[in-house]
């Protein structure tokens, strides 16, 4: 059934589209833009029913972790390091979160983690392959 998609696992960055246009649109500082370009981010997802812990490991040891329960408000952190509150929803097997200035979706498609962020018509897509 829909809504029980297995997100759990470790995924390594494989490729992205529209990175520069998107980070400019959402106002990521230029030093962070360079750091994030073609960055071999490893995304680790722990899923227990509707409870998720979503950790991004950046080269050099920096990590960002967002823990949330589908349908409940949670404290989140953006790509650019801003903190805010959001409620993650499940729609057609995709996790959907409305960030302050963009909408983010995540789904498992063809065994890969596909994340799409949209801001004012600019669509950023990041694909990661499963490594564990």
From TrEMBL:
It comes from the Eukaryota. Keywords: Cytoplasm, Lipid-binding, Transport. GO terms for molecular function: lipid binding. Gene3D superfamilies: 2.40.128.20. The keyword Transport applies. It is found in: Cytoplasm. GO terms for cellular component: cytoplasm. Residues 9-26 form the Cytosolic fatty-acid binding proteins domain. The keyword 4Fe-4S does not apply. Pfam families: Lipocalin_7. Its main location: cytoplasm. PANTHER family: FATTY ACID BINDING PROTEIN. Belongs to the calycin superfamily. Fatty-acid binding protein (FABP) family. This is FABP6 protein. It comes from Rhagologus leucostigma.
